[in-house]
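Example 4.3 (complexes with small molecules)
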Amino acid sequence: MNDIILTGDRPTGKLHIGHYFGSLKNRVKLQNEYETYIEVADIQALTDNFSNPEKVKNNVEQIVMDQLAVGIDPEKSTIFLQSMIPEIAELTVFYSNLVTIARLQRNPTVKTEISQKKELFGESVTYGFLGYPISQAADITAFNANIIPVGEDQLPLIEQCREIVRKFNSIYGETLREPQAYIGENKRIKGLDGNEKMGKSLGNAIYLSDPEEEITKKVMNALTDPARIKKDDYGNPDICMVSYYHKLFSNSEVEEICAECRAGKRGCVVCKKQLIKNIVKELLPIQEKRRYYEENPKLVKEILMEGTKKAQKEAANTIKKVKESMKLDYFLV
Ligand code: TRP
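Answer. The structure with tryptophan bound is encoded below.
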């Protein structure tokens, strides 16, 4: 059987450089080696944005444009929309018999997210949110995917999917393929404020589509060594977010930058300006490509529609097999 990759993004905002270094670059590489599916997970996005459907809808095309801009090639990767694949919803219902409520409540990813969403859920979480790992297992198995490139925070979800697959196969017979998480070169990028995570909701992100003025504003406010007040104070680049980003964007210049900082021979403003220049340079080709798609929204729609059509065929195959195994194959010829 061929290796098949599946990944997904919740369309709740544009993608940022955390996504870029954390997963997008990796995807662009992997699409050359494996059959690849990229899901725009709009139904999953609704699990914690159910009262904001406009937000989810408006971000669908933004996410697709970001993917295309970084080099996802629709000839190699199938980009599709979750809500247009009803088989995923069907599988979710079938799998929900195989998972206990206690097991969902113990899922570390779900647990963390619930505690972060107290404002939304109060003391009582919705059935839909608690159950999203089941729906994610449906995303994966609908396409017979076996390699799932994700960040570490997603590992408990993949583990839960593996359990569902094993349970399904043990009850209904060998039908589904057990997937594996692929961590690869994914790394988590810290925020401009030094937070361990760069996030839309944390306000510490540089977006792939940010114009130069925006990047300048953000970098100028980035956290630097707080003990360093004057230019000739000895700096500590190990606790400075500007040097952290230089390591991502300024390759050959990094050593000199850090040495000068330690020796008190470079001011933070100059250092930030150099970083801004390098970020702008790296994002330029991405932004040019993005602009092309922004000017051709019909093309973006077509790419998503074509990908979705292809995904629908695959999911239809899977649901047929699943229904046969579960003795739900009524009226099929
Ligand atoms: N939960 C993932 C995230 O928040 C998005 C996602 C949805 C996903 N479906 C998936 C990831 C299937 C991997 C496989 O980033």
